[in-house]
């Protein structure tokens, strides 16, 4: 069986604690040391720091838990509808301490995501919504048109409660529901137990070299995203780390804010999707770089989409003069169904890069070549096991063969909330001979090459035309090589036509491009045809900022495809 096992054991993975009980333990040990900082940039360019010590955070979480225990029962859902803030953390941990099932969501004002919020609330049917006074009116207005009628509590308006002892939770009870993006289907809530969450938080601490009191996390990732939640709350609770948060919009407005926060946080660990590193390299000025000191950064995690070698090089070149060391780049792979983290590149050295023959890779075989598709290793599993399997039969593929990535470990969730169809994804045979557990089918394609995992794409994103497989990221990179295309703006996908599947590329025109639309389209068709042997059915050129993205700024191929098929892009097309 072609599996990869973790390189080191995970310490303490069998603890019966919860994130909230760990908070109580750290509050007794670290007391008045700062646990949590939110850099609020709404009224200040440089950000106003709002902080809570470990003791203050513990007391506020206890206050929320006491309020919840009077209006909800153990196992009820408590949805968090708030902006990025210390209050979000208080609300989330308060729900867990009270024995409720936390549901990390977002404030109703998040642009373009009202439908997702409505669907998630209808799915989990919360008995209570936790928010803040700043978001209270918007929450009430939103719920007025919702089929759910929960109690609404503003966590920052609660009077302090008397301290009390809280019972230890059942480690196999549900801690929270992590809702998937819902870009291609109704959002599904992954059921994560206390055991799952603590296992993955500790796997992350081990993998990224966490040391209590000396390591901290810095994150602008939304707390309702799997990586943002574990980086901003889970790992700090497991590892006794201070956490620094900022709003995603603050990062997008001025990416140097993220890097300045890293500079001010010795021993920092942070994470971002691939696009964010290229965004920083192109948007941070030389004057802004003069304020940066990045030599003390411990790990910069690059994950949640294909990691591009050119992006790593561009970011390293841009900030090497600020002390950034090449070995801090940690390429990772993960997904919500496994809490988040699955594998990570080795510490202490740059992630390995291998160039594979493009045609052979599309045919399902990883064959090194002088030119073709260069992939960045996502390393080895973090306290779990990875299997490459035939996506139809589930049988292990031969070494060096591309297949579906499957995962087995204590961090893998129990299924999707209220969905019997979960059995088609979770706990699949054959049973892992080491653990006796089944496998999680990730829907991602990958290959194990010389003991390391390389992610090649997603099953649902493959562009299959005339019987040949094409990875969309390869097409997108070819399109973005033209100087008339805005970097990191292309989405390639397949559509059905009367003559079979056909390929479409949607992209944004570069702001300062002088190329005409007809000239640009012809050049892109020629480049894709020459590089991939693929004729494009359509090329849609949009103004900057018009390609559909996720809430963290990544291009969403699924939303692009849906908008294209719905005709929503027609009126925005240039030319």
TrEMBL record:
- InterPro entries tied to this protein: AMP-bd_C (IPR025110), AMP-bd_C_sf (IPR045851), AMP-dep_synth/lig_dom (IPR000873), ANL_N_sf (IPR042099), FAAL/FAAC (IPR040097)
Keywords of the record, alphabetical order, are: Fatty acid metabolism, Ligase, Lipid metabolism
Protein name as it appears in the record:
Acyl-CoA synthetase (AMP-forming)/AMP-acid ligase II
Top-rank taxon, per record? Bacteria
Source organism of the structure: Amycolatopsis pretoriensis
Alphabetized GO MF terms? adenylyltransferase activity; ligase activity
Output the Gene Ontology cellular-component terms: plasma membrane
According to the entry, every stretch annotated as the AMP-dependent synthetase/ligase domain falls at 31-417
> Per the UniProt entry, what are the Gene Ontology biological process annotations, in alphabetical order?
Actinobacterium-type cell wall biogenesis; fatty acid biosynthetic process
Boundaries of each AMP-binding enzyme C-terminal domain copy? 461-569
Similarity-based family:
Belongs to the ATP-dependent AMP-binding enzyme family.
């Amino acid at each position: 069986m072609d599996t990869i096992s973790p390189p080191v054991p995970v310490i303490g993975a069998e603890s019966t604690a919860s994130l909230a009980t760990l908070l109580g333990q750290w509050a007794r040990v670290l007391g008045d040391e700062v646990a949590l900082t939110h850099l609020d940039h709404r009224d200040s360019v440089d950000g106003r720091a709002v902080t809570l010590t470990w003791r203050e955070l513990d007391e506020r979480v206890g206050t929320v838990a006491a309020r919840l225990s009077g209006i909800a029962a153990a196992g009820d859902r408590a949805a968090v509808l708030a902006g990025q803030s210390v209050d979000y953390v208080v609300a989330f941990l308060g729900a867990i301490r009270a024995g409720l099932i936390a549901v990390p969501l977002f404030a109703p004002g998040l642009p373009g995501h009202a439908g997702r919020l409505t669907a998630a609330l209808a799915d989990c049917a919360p008995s209570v919504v936790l928010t803040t006074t700043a978001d209270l009116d918007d929450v009430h207005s939103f719920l007025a048109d919702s089929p759910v009628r929960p109690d609404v509590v503003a966590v920052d308006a609660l009077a302090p409660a008397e301290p009390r002892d809280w019972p230890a939770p059942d480690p196999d009870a549900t801690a929270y529901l992590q809702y998937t993006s819902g870009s291609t289907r109704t959002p599904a809530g992954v059921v994560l137990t206390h055991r799952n969450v603590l296992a993955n938080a500790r796997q992350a601490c081990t993998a990224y070299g966490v040391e209590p009191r000396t390591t901290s996390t810095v994150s602008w990732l939304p707390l309702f995203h799997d990586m943002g939640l574990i980086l901003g709350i889970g790992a700090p609770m497991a590892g006794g780390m201070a956490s620094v948060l900022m709003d995603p919009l603050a990062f997008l407005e001025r990416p140097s804010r993220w890097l300045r926060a890293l500079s001010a946080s010795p021993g920092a660990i942070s994470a971002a999707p691939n696009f964010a590193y290229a965004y920083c390299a192109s948007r941070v000025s030389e004057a802004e770089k003069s304020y940066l000191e990045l030599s003390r950064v411990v790990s910069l995690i690059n994950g949640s989409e294909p990691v591009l070698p050119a992006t790593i090089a561009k970011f390293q070149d841009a900030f090497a003069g600020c002390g950034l060391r090449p070995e801090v780049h940690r390429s990772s792979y993960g997904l919500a169904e496994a809490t988040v983290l699955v594998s990570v590149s080795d510490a202490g050295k740059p992630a390995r890069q291998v160039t594979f023959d493009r045609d052979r890779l599309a045919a399902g075989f990883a064959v090194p070549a002088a030119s073709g598709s260069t992939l960045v290793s996502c390393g080895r599993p973090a306290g779990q096991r990875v299997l490459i399997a035939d996506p139809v039969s589930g049988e292990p593929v031969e070494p060096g063969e591309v297949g579906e990535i499957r995962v087995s470990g204590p961090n893998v969730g129990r299924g999707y909330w209220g969905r019997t169809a979960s059995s088609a994804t979770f706990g699949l045979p054959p049973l892992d001979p080491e653990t006796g557990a089944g496998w999680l089918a990730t829907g991602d394609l990958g290959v194990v090459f010389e003991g390391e995992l390389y992610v090649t794409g997603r099953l649902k994103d493959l562009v299959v035309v005339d019987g040949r497989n094409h990875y969309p990221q390869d097409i997108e990179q070819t399109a973005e090589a033209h100087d008339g295309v805005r970097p990191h703006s292309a989405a390639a996908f397949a559509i059905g036509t009367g003559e079979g599947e056909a390929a479409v590329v949607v992209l944004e025109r570069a702001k300062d491009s002088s190329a005409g639309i007809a000239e640009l389209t012809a050049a892109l068709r020629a480049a894709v045809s020459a590089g991939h042997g693929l004729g494009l059915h359509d090329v849609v050129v949009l103004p900057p900022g018009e390609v559909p993205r996720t809430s963290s700024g990544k291009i969403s191929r699924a939303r692009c495809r849906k908008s294209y098929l719905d005709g929503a892009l027609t009126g925005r097309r240039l030319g």
